[in-house]
Specification:
By secondary structure, the protein is mainly α. It folds into two domains: 210 residues, Up-down Bundle (Alpha-lytic protease prodomain-like); 107 residues, 2-Layer Sandwich (Alpha-Beta Plaits). A three-stranded mixed sheet has the order 1-2-3, covered by helices on one side. The two termini are 49 Å apart.
Length: 326
Amino acid sequence: MTKEIEDDKRVKVIRTAGIIALIGNALLAAIKLTLAYFSKSLAVMGDGIDSSTDVLIALVTIIISSIISKPSDEEHPWGHGRAETTTTMCLAFLIFYAGAELVVSSVKQIINGDFSNSISYLAIIAAAVSIFGKMILAFIENRLGKKSDSEMVKANAQNMMNDIILSVGVLIGLLASHLFKCPILDPIIAGIVGLWVVKNAIQLFAQMNVELMDGNTDDSLYEKLFKAACSVKGVSNPHRARIRKISSRWDIDLDIEVDANLTVHKAHDICQKVETAVRQAIPDVYDIMVHVEPAGHSNHHAEEQFGVSPKTLNEYEQEEAEKKHH
């Protein structure tokens, strides 16, 4: 199967995920906002607003699926995969806003004592419908996210999982308020759930920021890279490796050393074999650049930019092990 066919199928899966999320969240948002209006429940209103932001997220997902499918061009030689990363960061902000808005509204209501003396059954029904609907959507989005290996769809699935927790918290608060005749529990539970949503948004933003800054926290990829390079006859001292993620694919730079007496043709053949070995060891490689140096040359580029070598990788792993030990 060619890369173009794989990309086309992946985009179709991402677009399908967006359409399903759009329709499902639009229905849930309409139901919850309507029931919140009649029940006067802040928690349900916040839950409905959160579902409304999910509708926007779904629209963005559909739009982005058409952008990332575009091939590389003169202005975007690495393709358009970064659109998915930046959009996922935007989703993190939307999730953060929904949680923060719920926290602020809850605090204001508690301080002002502005809450109903009783909890309507409509509010309880709204929370129950939300839980059931979000469970179905989260399951579907999670499956499609894994199938497409899309961080954007996975983030949306995680957001829906957070929504389930939010709705469960709302339901518990409403039931407790109704059973114990304590309506103040409605804004209190809503505020706690809002803080949980904010925490998850910050974690998602941090994860996407690493990718946007061309970072990589998966050391196992470097281990696979060096092992694959060394498996090729004639290769020595793989070093100055850099691995960054572009959407769901990896862009790799690597320096290797070969016998200084080899012809350019022979050295090029070795590079091709290294590239093949790396692509077999690491799935979804977008591009790999292998730079050849004569054996013993690596000490002459100390002033060049940083790159990982087996030595620095081992030193880092030892430091992390010592931190965990202490």
